[in-house]
Write a structure and sequence with these properties.
globular; binds adenosine-2'-monophosphate; alpha+beta
Length: 173
């Protein structure tokens, strides 16, 4: 079994800015910063999937024509119950919502089970927070979303491994 999810990975510049923010926010909220290399925005969480299903998953995830777009994270917030503080979008761009909804639809059509909860676009910066954090505006951290990835969360290592990556049009070649 493999613990899998689809996600966006920030580019180097955004990652640097978010990593600095993560340390700051972890201090403010008495939590643990997410290491810079692990910072990502989850599009769809599959949980434990049998490794034999990965080829079908990769096949199902292939996007139709989808253009690259710019993402701006312009808000800080927290999910108290999950104990995470994050950077998110006050108004998620329609391209992000369309990309996410398309992945979820194709996976469901292929028979994969996914969370029924509505998508809440967020990039977790700190975990195990012990102090609350009310939503607050953030000077936007931007990057051009030119691909998305299927990622495995490697148990025990606190690390992620990219299994497949799909470019968006006008993005990576
Ligand atoms: P989080 O950052 O809000 O914790 C790998 O664990 C990724 O999948 C993380 O981004 C995590 O979101 C997300 N994730 C973990 N468990 C999840 C669940 N039950 N439902 C949705 N997303 C989940």
């Amino acid at each position: 079994m493999a613990r899998l999810f689809f996600a966006l990975w920030p580019d180097e510049a955004a990652r640097g800015a978010l990593a600095a923010m993560s340390k700051d926010l972890a201090r403010r909220c008495a939590g643990r910063p997410v290491p810079g290399a692990n910072l990502h925005l989850t599009l769809a969480f599959l949980g434990e999937v049998d490794a034999s299903a990965i080829p079908a998953l990769r096949h199902a995830a292939r996007p139709g024509p989808t253009a690259a777009f710019e993402l701006a994270l312009d808000q800080l917030g927290a999910f108290a119950r999950a104990g995470v503080a994050w950077a998110g979008c006050r108004r998620p761009p329609p391209e992000l919502l369309a990309l996410q909804a398309g992945i979820v639809r194709r996976l469901r059509e292929a028979g994969f089970a996914l969370d029924e909860r509505a998508f809440a676009a967020h990039l977790t910066l700190a975990r195990r927070i012990r102090e609350p954090l009310a939503p607050e505006p953030l000077e936007a951290v931007r990057w051009r979303v030119d691909s998305f990835a299927l990622v495995e969360s490697v148990r025990g290592e606190g690390a992620y491994r990219t299994l497949a990556e799909w470019p968006l049009e006008g993005g990576k070649t």
